[in-house]
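Here we describe the complex-level prediction in full. Unlike the single-chain runs in Section 2.1, the two entities below were treated as one system.
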Amino acid sequence: MDVTQYTIKQISVFSENKPGRLAAIAGALQDEGINILAFSIAEANGFGVVRALVNKPEAAYTKLNAMGFMVSFTDVIAVKMRDVPGGLFEMAAILSEAGINIEYSYAYSGREAAVLILRVDQVDAAVEKILARGGTLLGADEF
Amino acid sequence: MIAWDPNMELMPEAELKKMQFKLLKTLVYRLYSFSNFYHERMVAHGVHPDDITRLEDVAKLPYMVKSDLRDNYPDKIFTADPEELVRYHVSSGTTGKPTVVGYTKNDLENWTESLARALTSCGVGRGDVVQVAYGYGLFTGGLGLHYGAERIGASVVPASVGNTERQLELMQDLRVTAICCTPSYLVHIGETAKKMGISIKDDTRLKRAILGAEPWSDQMRERIEEEMGIKAYNIYGTSELSGPMFTDCAEQNGIHMWSDIALVEIIDPETGRPVPDGEQGEMVVTILQKEALPIIRYRTGDITSIDHTPCQCGRTHPRIARLSGRVDDMLIIRGINVFPSQVEHALLGIPEVSGNFMIEVDRVGALDHMLVKVELNPEAFSDKINDILDIRRKVGHTLKNMLNVSVDVEISEPGSLPRFEGKAQRVIDRRVL
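The structure predicted for the assembly as a whole is:
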């Protein structure tokens, strides 16, 4: 099975925690005509990491890098969840039973279903287990 | 171990101290009798030469500071007859009016002997070809090392500074084995060599470098030694003391301060009290045999520590540690002396951050609070917050270990902290004291 079709390039940007930084990032993406599909900010005292799934990750990387931002790509997977009580538990239980650690995650409400973005410590294993248990993953081409 | 002057360099410590006391006593009597400047100082300070009854009594004598030399420009403090003077050196005056140092024949002789011992202790000697790439002229570096290297029978290439490609040609053609210059100039020579397709390691016979006249770090020494395949030794001196005079020995574990030439004290720059061996403070130097421009208890402004324990090389003269900063740059954080250069040294050892930094000091309630802002290296960027927090912790621990003070660390984006041309201003002190 080709797991790469399910690994999605998330763009991660380091940002000092001060006014204007997010506006600068968002404005740059707008200038390049890049659409943000999913988005989260993890913050610590003094700095944060902006994580986003965008429709043109390479272009976003090039633009933000040229502006002096520290940018990196991270492989994540996107799981469709049943938008009912217990939907998250189903997914979390599959990974838990397989001994796969979730390093972080965030969710958004997609057009058809709730979508859970996951960064896990074993991407290939996670893809295999979720598919084997009847779960649905969004393909990289859907972004 | 080869010593230039074994009788002096290996003299038991007790005898060295006896000799220092005799020299000090003679110096103080001479200056009390023949120097208006020192006579007035001693009278105003309430000390008479008879009060000097043991070596430690040096502490009873008044200090001399740089402004004394400026205020008495050009030669009001000189004690030698003008016709006895055989040379003048003049400081660049970058921080104010220049200072003038005069030399008698004996002063030059002591300076040269000091460097002859120093160069020998670094393993330089007859058969070596020494490229002196310090500036010649009013600056003391070039001529000082020139005469020192000639004294030990080395062949001297008086290259002075500049024309770097030519320096490299000479280094190859004359089979240079040792170079004396500033560390930054040697790095520049290395970069120029690379551009010319020359490997210092493989295409030259360079084995040793005697580096000083500007602050540098052990990290830089390691880098130079590794890239060039040489040994790099630290040299110390200032024009007020004569010029460059003292170096590391082959152990590279501190600069030997010849006891017959210099009496070294390390004091707390705030209180003026002596600090114990191994602890940092301001170096105060008495040059014991100066004739033209005598120097008693000169406050160098340089921060270092002293070590009187025996050196592996066998030399009995005390060693001072690499300078960690200048008194002028010192911050006092919760009663502890902190130097921006210590922060720089610590950061250079942490690959996840760049060497660029800013220090911000505030008073929170009654407590001093120090924040060090560092730039994350792009290669170290992880999108996992914990990885970055780990880097911040690592920087914090390293700084705490080095400074003995807890500091807050802020991780900044690369390139976001100020850059400086010339002297960096890396401290913002907002305390109202």
